[in-house]
Amino acid sequence: QSLLIIDDSPTSAGILADALHDMGLQAQTVSDPAHALELIDQANRTQSPFAIAFIDATMPGIDGFVLARHLRERHHTDPAIVMLVPPVDRKSELAQCQELDIHGYIAKPYKPADLLKAVLKSCGLVQSTGTEMDINLTEVDAKTASVPKSAVALKLLLVDDNPFNQKLGVLKLQ
Fold first, then answer.
1. CA 151 remoteness from chain centre
2. How far are the Cα atoms of 109, 111, 150 from residue 70, in angstroms, in the given order?
3. Residue 168 has what pLDDT?
């Protein structure tokens, strides 16, 4: 399954595509939300839906939240959505994410770790429990049936110089 980036800024879309490529993921970019809807519809018709759509919240014309509403009305859960929110007025943007059941979001500019966390959250593999993040990498069952299959098989590298933290991390990931 592939990823789709919808951003009116070719520079921002390119930076995100490069960051995803560095994570071993390939993404297609599109600047027009209407064209993005067509691509997503076509991908679903051909049984090769996008796993994740990265949507810029602030685009002219059809903004990211309008696009997300259209996607939810048409396709309910596919693709998972990561909303790219501006660094200002995040409170109202995050409220809209919650309203649309969008679990993955990142503020521009972002760090690679934030991007990874947003990807995992959008697929339901990471859940926030207040101050810590729990990674839930269980097999697909009735609860996670909507999680894209490609998102379940992950290779993780745990790096820590403390042996206790290494063991704790491995236990947490099992």
1. 10
2. 26, 29, 24
3. 67
Assess whether the previous peptide bond of 79 is cis (omega < 30° from 0).
Answer: yes
Beta bridge partners of residue 4, listed in sequence order: 28, 53
Burial 127-161 (b: 16+ CB within 10 A, else e): eeeeeeeeeeeeeeeeeeeebbeebeeeeeeeeee
User: Residue 134: is its pLDDT beyond 90?
Assistant: no
Task: State yes or no: pLDDT of 81 exceeds 90.
Answer: no
d(CA 108, CA 150): 26
pLDDT of residue 126: 63
Q: What angle do CA 94, 113, 140 make, to 5 degrees?
A: 80
With a cut of 90, say whether residue 31 has pLDDT above it.
Answer: yes
